[in-house]
Design brief:
- With 305 residues, this protein is of the alpha+beta class.
- The protein is built from twelve helices and eight strands.
- The protein has one domain.
- It has a four-stranded antiparallel beta sheet. The protein has a four-stranded antiparallel beta sheet with strand order 5-6-8-7, covered by helices on one side.
- Helix 7 runs antiparallel to helix 8, helix 7 crosses helix 9 and helix 8 packs across helix 9.
- It is globular and about 55 Å long.
């Protein structure tokens, strides 16, 4: 049943989003520092994990669900995923498909799960939904609207347009833990933002940080690198960390007509360092000087408001 629903969902999302993503073929610098695979290639890590799951299969999953995950996830996912996170991702995908199976459930509805990260003040959040332009920006806006600060974000898009976004977030109010109410409100806002048409309350809540934030005390630094990757344009940004910063960056990319292929978000102290792999509407790197100039202009406008 879930497999049939998955096939129906692919047809739905292809109507919503005609973009085709190309899987990266090289190890990206942004992810190298935390890649757990050592000298193993991503294919070896994937095959090793497949063997382990075959010897001890997790309960509750159909064979087709697991195979769709192993054949559809991109190389940078297998370079770094751990076995617990692999099972968590399968559970999130299963939960998303079950949401779609519910009566009158819209195809835009997201599934989200979260848990504390042991030994830290962070909460890990797994988002699963159909991929579409501006998705990551809307998720970032929903986090900031409930005063949650994203410390790291990773984007993984399957070949069938199911997306798994993994966030590490903390409460923007120092000393307070992330609450269940905040997470529930965030999911509600994101659901409204992804609806067609978007709900007004979500649009307003997700943009109000623009009217509340102070001017950034440090000038942002934007580097657009078109040589590091053959398949995408690398955007590196260093800026003063503030609530809504990631949303402003991602929204500028979406408004330029481009899409995020990969993203690594790091926050240390008052500084945010974002590394984002950008492609055009056809899933290819930006080669036109006009495209590159427009992207930089949009980012400068967003960061120097």
């Amino acid at each position: 049943m879930l497999y049939l629903l998955w096939l129906m969902g692919i047809a739905i999302i292809r109507k919503m989003n005609t973009m085709q993503f190309n899987e990266p073929e090289v190890v990206k610098k942004a992810f190298a520092a935390t890649k757990p695979g050592g000298a193993q290639s991503w294919q070896e890590r994937r095959d090793d994990l497949r063997k382990r799951l075959g010897e001890n299969p997790p309960a509750g999953f159909e064979t087709d669900e697991i195979e769709a995950h192993f054949t559809g996830m991109p190389s940078h996912y297998w370079e770094r995923v751990t076995e617990p996170d692999l099972i968590w991702g399968l559970e999130a995908t299963h939960g998303f498909l079950n949401l779609l199976a519910a009566a009158k459930a819209p195809p835009t509805m997201p599934f989200m799960d979260y848990c504390p990260e042991p030994g830290t003040h962070l909460t890990r959040v797994m988002l699963c939904t159909w991929d579409r332009q501006g998705l990551l920006a809307k998720a970032a806006a929903s986090f900031s609207a409930v005063r949650l600060s994203i410390q790291r974000a990773e984007v993984f898009t399957r070949a069938d347009n199911v997306v798994l976004d993994l966030f590490r977030v903390t409460n923007a109010d120092a000393g307070e833990a992330v609450s269940a109410a905040q997470m529930q409100n965030m999911v509600s806002l994101l659901d409204g933002a992804l609806s067609e048409p978007p709900r007004f309350a979500s649009v307003w809540a997700c943009s109000r940080h623009k009217y509340l934030a102070d001017h950034d005390p440090l000038p942002p630094r934007i580097i657009i690198d078109n040589q590091a990757s053959r398949l995408s344009t690398l955007v590196q940004i260093e800026a003063f960390d503030r609530l809504g910063l990631l949303y402003d960056i991602l929204q500028a990319i979406a408004e330029s007509g481009f899409n995020v292929l990969q993203a690594a978000i790091e926050t240390e102290g008052v500084s945010a360092r974002d590394t984002i792999h950008v492609v055009d509407a056809q899933g290819k790197k930006l080669t036109s000087p006009t495209q590159l100039q427009n992207l930089k202009k949009q980012l400068e406008t967003a960061l120097n408001r």
